[in-house]
Each structure stands twice: as structure tokens, then as C-alpha cells.
Specification:
This protein is about 50% helix and about 0% strand. The model has no long low-confidence stretch (mean pLDDT about 95). A hairpin with a 5-residue loop joins strand 1 and strand 2. The protein is mostly helical.
């Protein structure tokens, strides 16, 4: 069986094959995935959602993202850092999110750690691990897209060393892809270099 290259979407434009299973994926692929994301709160949201995605499909998280945003105060670090045990209990009972105790606890703990960082430090730290685009040829097929890289492993270690949880190398690489540190749209994908 051959590994898929970009395939035509509903409008005939070539896209990464993973993006075509639902309209939600097409929109996410075309408008968000791989585009640069900056700002501590925005990156905290992406980091948290990638952690919640661990072991699940991304569509599960994407469809619940509005519920996550409502439950976690828009992922504003200062607000989430101030959550109490009552908030934790509320989250564990909230059907609009993934009610995984370990992931909820990690998100709350991460917010408390990040609340002590100077403004811009999370953004600066994460983006310091972005590889030089010139060293990364455009992937031709999905087989050319890694799940982990040396940079994501180093980013994971740096985040863990600073006290963050649920930030393994695979989660760190998914974050790098989603937030535009790397461009893993396939070579002939319409979204490649559309940043």
C-alpha cells in the first residue's frame, strides 16, 4: 500500500489526506494548522489541548474546543492558575470537555507554573525550538512527516525541566505542527506556505 500524497478536497484543491474526513478538519487544516501562533495564553491553550488529545483523535478535541474554552476561562493563564478545588470538581463533571483527571490536574498545575513566568517567556521558550525551515524539505507523503524530532524532544525536556506536565516529545511535536514552528503540510498541499 502506498502512503498518501496530497489528495483533492471537495473544492478540487490538493490537501493533506488527514484533513478530508470531515468539514471541521478541512477548515482547521486550511485556516489554522501550521500557521504561526504567538502569545502565552494562546500557546497555553494549544499545549493544553494537545495534552488532552493524547491517546485520542484530534477531531474529538477540535469539536469540543468551544467547551474547553468555556470551561478553562479562555485558557487565560492567570485565571486558570487561580482555579480552586471547586473548579476542579466542576471540570471533572463537565460533559463539554474530556474529563480525564490526570489531564485536568496537569492543565491546572501548568497554569500555576506559567503564572509565575514573565510575560512572553512561554512564547519565547517554545519558539526558540523552531527548526530552520531551510533544513526541512517539504514532506511529499504522510510517511515523510515525523511524530517526534530532536527539536520536539529538546522542547519537551525544557518544558518538563521548568515544571510543566503532559508535555512529552510527541505532544511537543504536535504543538510545533499546530502552532507553525514547522510546516508539515505536504509539498503539493494548497495550505503549504499559505501562512
Amino acid at each position: 500500500m502506498t502512503t498518501p500524497a496530497a489528495v483533492p478536497g471537495p473544492d478540487g484543491a490538493l490537501r493533506c489526506p488527514w484533513a478530508l474526513s470531515t468539514a471541521d478538519y478541512v477548515a482547521y487544516h486550511d485556516e489554522e494548522w501550521g500557521r504561526p501562533v504567538h502569545g502565552d495564553d494562546a500557546l497555553f491553550e494549544r499545549l493544553s489541548l494537545e495534552a488532552f488529545q493524547s491517546g485520542l483523535s484530534w477531531i474529538t478535541i477540535l469539536r469540543r474546543r468551544p467547551g474547553f474554552r468555556a470551561a478553562f476561562a479562555g485558557f487565560r493563564i492567570e485565571k486558570v492558575a487561580a482555579f480552586t478545588e471547586t473548579d476542579r470538581d466542576r471540570l471533572l463533571a463537565d460533559p463539554g470537555i474530556i474529563r480525564n483527571r490526570a489531564k485536568i490536574d496537569a492543565t491546572l498545575a501548568n497554569a500555576r507554573v506559567l503564572a509565575d513566568w514573565p510575560t512572553g517567556e512561554l512564547d519565547e521558550l517554545i519558539w526558540s525550538y523552531a527548526p530552520d525551515p531551510a533544513t526541512r524539505p517539504a514532506p511529499k507523503t504522510l510517511a515523510d512527516v515525523p511524530a517526534v524530532t530532536a527539536e520536539s524532544t529538546a522542547l519537551s525536556k525544557a518544558l518538563k525541566k521548568r515544571g510543566l506536565r503532559f508535555v512529552g516529545p510527541t505532544t511537543a511535536y504536535a504543538l510545533m505542527q499546530a502552532c507553525g514552528l514547522v510546516d508539515d503540510h505536504l509539498e503539493t498541499c494548497v495550505a503549504r506556505n499559505a501562512r
